[in-house]
Amino acid sequence: MKRLRRLAAEGPTADDTVVMLDAHCSFTGLDDFTVYWGTPDEILVSGPVTEVGDRIRELRAEARARKGWIMDTYLLRRTPPQD
Questions:
Q1: Does the N terminus or the C terminus of the chain have fewer Cβ atoms within 10 A?
Q2: Which contacts qualify for 15-22: CB closer than 8 Å, 24 or more apart?
Q3: Which span out of 4-8, 26-30, 38-42, 52-56 was modeled with the highest average pLDDT?
Q4: b or e along 23-46 (b: 16 or more beta carbons within 10 Å of the residue's beta carbon)?
Q5: Rounded Cα distance, 73 and 53, in Å
Q6: Considering the chain, what percentage of its residues have pLDDT values greater than 90?
Q7: Nearest 5°: CA angle at 36, between 31 and 37?
């Protein structure tokens, strides 16, 4: 849990960051990252955070409402600068 709070407070400290069980969707506002998000039920979403962040929040809320809990994991990968 300490690491999650650190992600929310400080942002990613590497170009690739793996996050588990993030009830707060701490990827919000990380516009220069691509997210690869999923659950054990194979609910999968990937793309630039700016494009898929809202969809992930919706799917996460729906899955939690159905099950009462959610186990999700995601990879944040910094988007390389465009030349």
A1: C
A2: 15/77, 15/78, 16/75, 16/76, 16/77, 16/78, 17/75, 17/76, 18/73, 18/74, 18/75, 18/76, 19/73, 19/74, 19/75, 19/76, 20/71, 20/72, 20/73, 21/71, 21/72, 21/73, 22/72, 22/74
A3: 52-56
A4: eebbbeebeebbbebbbeeeeebe
A5: 14
A6: 53
A7: 105
In the chain, the amino acid numbered 10 is E
Cα–Cα distance, 56 to 34 (Å, whole number)? 12
* Backbone angles phi and psi of 26, in degrees to 5: -65, -5
**What pTM was computed for the model?**
0.85
The predicted model gives 10-22 an average pLDDT of: 84
Residue 83 has a pLDDT of 67
